Amino acid sequence: MAAAMRKQLIEYLEANKGFEDSEVLCKDKGWDHEVLVGAIKSLQAEEQVTAEPIKREGWKLTEEGVQYCEKGSPEVQVFNFIKSKGSAPNADVDAALGAVAKIGLGTCMKNKWVSIDKATKVCSPTVDSVEDTVQKELSSLSSLDKAKLDALKKRKLIAPTSLTAFKVETSDKFSAASQKAVADLTSEMILKGTWSSTTFKPFNLTNVSGVPCTGGHLHPLNKVKTEMRQVLMQMGFEEMTTNQWVESSFWNFDALFQPQQHPARDAHDTFFMEEPSRAQDIPADYLAKVKEMHEKGGQGSIGWRYDWSEDEAKKTLLRTHTTAVSARTLYKLGEEYRKTGVFRPKKYFSIDRVFRNETLDATHLAEFHQIEGFIADRNIGLPQLIGVLRDFFSRIGISKLRFKPAYNPYTEPSMEIFGFHPILKKWIEVGNSGVFRPEMLLPMGLPEDVSVIAWGIGCERWTALLYNIRMIKELFSFQQDVAATKKNPMCWLRRAED
Asked: Does position 159 have pLDDT exceeding 50, yes or no?
């Protein structure tokens, strides 16, 4: 249809060079104006014609108006039905014409075309014939006066519409022999060879920005981990290797001077491995020193006073904290000191996953990420620990800190850390800290005058605070909002100096 209209339009323009009004032309030729406009725009895009728009307001038939224009108005349909029957019960009129009967019968009564017997409810015509003025008016909207148009509008048979006609003139590029430019090269064109004689639309590569890349987006947890890593490196810390999730009970508990009867080592709190079930990489001399420290103590400590089990120490598990990584790193520092006789102060941190056999709920999973750091040096203790913590937390937006005495099996003294949240406007627990006990450090071979201060915080808790996440499934699970992950910026508290 569009191709035929294009051909007819080109033939007309070849003979007449243009026309004043496309709407008038359509009425003269019996063309569909919408199809003609499509052909005009096609030639305009090829710069073969110039088209000047002519905007005018008009009227169009509603869906109901189209039906009445084709079949007649409701009142005439009702009259014709009753006339054809001679007379008809009201129920028969309703059954035959449906919704039209309800609309038309009232108008028939108003026009006195039909009468209804009140007793029998039988409808009878009172005139011989009627003229369907509504149908005629719907067929010739352009010739109606305002009063008639308003009446049809009130009956919702017509609706206002805006029409854009065009004044068209041919340009210097007009050619009656021109073909419509094709946008796509198809396999059929190639097989038949018609591509060589086909006119293709030119590519417009001016100011083309292309489709934006939808590459990967960092998960909120990864954003926080990355920022924490940068902060700790700015403070001079080195990152420890944390890729060993399966750990021995020795490094996870015993090396930290945590007794084998401690409730944290129960199966209800720890995931023990079935395969491999035993660790083999524990240095024998270090194992013996840890055993002696647990059973008898040393350097002023009396130990835990129980029979230490090597079999229990070699059980494998999913590490319950990254402090096991800290223990391995400190042991290597002790080895270096024993070999060289020189101790070098060190600052280390780790950010990785740990596992706890705990009850799952809306805010807890069986695995989470832990951020941990320690400093090994001479002449350091609680004052230096508090100073480092104030420095660290001020860099991530927490400038007000409080410390509360606490108990940890492998640190003494120990402190819980509370920070004033500037957005929540309240004090919240932000971490745990302490000074590693001599009973933990001496078996590692570190000098007696070296102390280690350490702290740890939960990464998920911090992420939830920053991104206003109330349930863990909003952070991990199929219910996690991917759209939010894509659009969220790096969420951060105000710097203390701001």
From this structure: yes
Tell which residue, 228, 215, 213, 212, has the closest CA to residue 490: 228
pLDDT digits (tens, 9 = 90+) for 372-381: 999 999 999 9
Compute the distance between CA of residue 121 and CA of residue 112 in angstroms, rounded to an integer.
Answer: 16
Q: Residue 18: which residues within 8 A CB-CB, separation 6 or more?
A: 49, 167, 168, 169, 170
Amino acid 327: pLDDT: 94
- Averaged over 243-260, what is the pLDDT? 91
108: three-class secondary structure by DSSP: helix
Q: What is the DSSP string of 289-339?
A: HHHHHHHT-BTTB----S---HHHHTBEEE-S-THHHHHHHHHHHHHHHHH
The CB density around residue 438, as the number of other CB atoms within 10 Å, is 20
Q: How far apart are CA 309 and CA 248, in angstroms?
A: 13
- Cα separation, 49 vs 51, in Å, equals 6
Report the CATH architecture of 74-131.
Answer: Orthogonal Bundle (1.10)
Question: What would the two tokens of residue 46 be?
Answer: 């090829």
**How many angstroms separate the first and last alpha carbons of the chain?**
69
CB 424, CB 317: distance < 8 Å: no
Angle, nearest 10°, between helix axes 220-234 and 382-395? 130
Residue 429 burial class via C-beta count within 10 angstroms: exposed 0-12, middle 13-18, buried 19 and up: middle
Q: Which long-range contacts (CB under 8 A, 24 or more apart) does 341-345 make?
A: 343/378, 343/446, 343/447, 343/450, 345/375, 345/376, 345/377, 345/378
Residue of 315, 340, 331 lying closest to 240 (CA atoms): 331
Segment 399-415 shows an average pLDDT of 91
Banded pLDDT at 207 (limits 50, 70, 90): low
Kindly give, in sequence order, each residue whose CB lies less than 8 Å from that of residue 452, ignoring residues fewer than 6 positions away.
330, 374, 375, 376, 435, 436, 441, 446
Is the domain covering 2-62+157-197 a CATH 3.40.50.12780 domain? no
Confidence of residue 274 (pLDDT cuts 50, 70, 90): confident
Beta-strand pair 411-421/401-408: antiparallel
- From the centroid of its chain, how far is CA 275? 40
- What are the domain boundaries of the chain? 2-62+157-197, 74-131, 221-487
Query: How would residue 105 be classed by pLDDT, with cut points 50, 70 and 90?
Result: confident
| The token pair that represents 23 in the structure block | 């709407």
> Rounded mean pLDDT of 417-422?
86
Which fold does the domain 221-487 belong to in CATH?
BirA Bifunctional Protein; domain 2 (3.30.930)
Q: What average pLDDT does this structure show over 47-56?
A: 89
